[in-house]
């Protein structure tokens, strides 16, 4: 879904809803360490690899574990769009140890897309906003917190 964003869009939308945070599962293709942050290139197999930046937390060194290349990870964060390039400012990165998590993530993506394009849109259109302008409303979606340990 991230690769479907237009270059001019600053946020991801599902239907008419803004998605402030995303969860991505993919393979770490490269890791670059810096004193302040760690940059990853994550390949989720839906398009070109996505740049992910995770800032180092000096107060909690245990949360600064760096994922190794060629391992599956789950990244939760917010999408940034700078000069037409999409990246993710990571809030959390965890290593995927069970490949069933990958299958579960794919099902969550399908469920999320169907829910926010069909169920919620029908609910707001028919029940709460029975006006011709109902499809132009923008609602903020709360972050899905299942990606944090």
TrEMBL record:
GO CC, one annotated term: DNA replication factor A complex
InterPro entries, per database record: NA-bd_OB-fold, RFA2-like
A single GO molecular function term of this UniProt record: single-stranded DNA binding
Gene Ontology biological process terms, A to Z: DNA replication; double-strand break repair via homologous recombination; nucleotide-excision repair
Sorted UniProt keywords: DNA-binding, Nucleus
Chief place of localization: nucleus
Location(s) in or outside the cell: Nucleus
Keyword Iron belongs to the record: no
The name this protein goes by in its record: OB domain-containing protein
Species per Swiss-Prot/TrEMBL record: Soboliphyme baturini
Classification lineage: Eukaryota, Metazoa, Ecdysozoa, Nematoda, Enoplea
